[in-house]
Amino acid sequence: MAVPKPEELKNLRESFRAKKQTCFILGASGETGKELLAEILREPIFSTVTLIGRRKLDLEESLHTPVKQEVVDFEKLDEFSAAFQGHDVGFCCLGTTKAKAGDDGFVRVDHDYVLHSAELAKAGGCRHFVLQSTKGADASSSFLYLRVKGKVENRIKAVGFDRYSIFRPAVLLCDRRESRPGEWVARKVLGAIAYVCPTFYSVPTVTVARAMANDVVMPGRDNQKVEILENADIHALGNVK
After folding, report:
1. 3-state class (DSSP) for residue 229
2. Is residue 120 situated within a structural domain?
């Protein structure tokens, strides 16, 4: 993957900003989604940002980029199709865990909600869809988590976006507001491993978010409609400022 130099990236951002494109973010309340929102507001490359989710988020009153919020019921998404209309780029950081939602709930969120949102976005005019998947995603995997991620990747390919970027980060490093048993220890251990092998086992959520923002301002790679960024690619692109 060709990674732009800082000066090249600056020019790409300026050129992209001049197009006055709009975007939406699914999952802006999650760890990566929060970082993504902060990144694209810090580097205001879009004329408008729309957050689509179950509830409104508390945002700063003074923002340089207008932020709209659309509250939807993911069980009745067709009734909220208007929320997906008129966007040039769609970011999807939506997801849950089996521990939190159970197997059925996980499939419903990470596959059904994500796919349905992508279909509505395409119908609403979205040209570039950016999906947060996971390292090892594989539709034929014997592991439910990886199998579901692989299946939704493939199903969205069939939706037919002009450009489709799949991000496959490894273990996400972040400081969660909510405390989960064992996570503090895991973060410390993975942080130490990341110091030695920074691109293999893990990646900070802020790096994923910056890579996503950098990716959209770059032209598509070799005229390919579908691009897959593995963990090393995310590190490389996300560390360009």
Report:
1. strand
2. yes
Is the per-residue pLDDT at 180 higher than 50?
A: no
What is the CATH classification number for the domain harbouring 62?
A: 3.40.50.720
Kindly report each contact of residues 75-84 with a partner whose C-beta sits within 8 Å and lies 24 or more positions away, as own/partner.
77/113, 77/116, 77/117, 77/120, 78/120, 81/120, 81/123, 81/124, 83/24, 83/50, 83/52, 84/24, 84/52, 84/117, 84/120, 84/121, 84/123, 84/124, 84/126
Q: Is a pLDDT exceeding 90 seen at residue 183?
A: no
Place of tokens 């849950």: 96
What percent of the chain has pLDDT above 90? Answer: 77
Q: Which helix (H) or strand (E) holds 226?
A: strand 226-229
Does residue 220 fall inside a structural domain? yes
In a domain, 189, yes or no: no
Q: Average pLDDT for residues 116-125, to the nearest whole number?
A: 98
Tell me the residue range of the domain where 228 lies: 6-172+204-238
Is residue 61 a part of any domain in this protein? Answer: yes
Residue 188 CA to residue 194 CA, distance in Å, equals 10
43 φ/ψ angles, rounded to the nearest 5 degrees: -110, 85
In the predicted model, what is the mean pLDDT of residues 72-96? 97
CA 168 – CA 55 distance, rounded (Å): 27
Domain count, the chain: 1
Active site residues: 145, 149
Residue 110 has pLDDT above 70, yes or no: yes
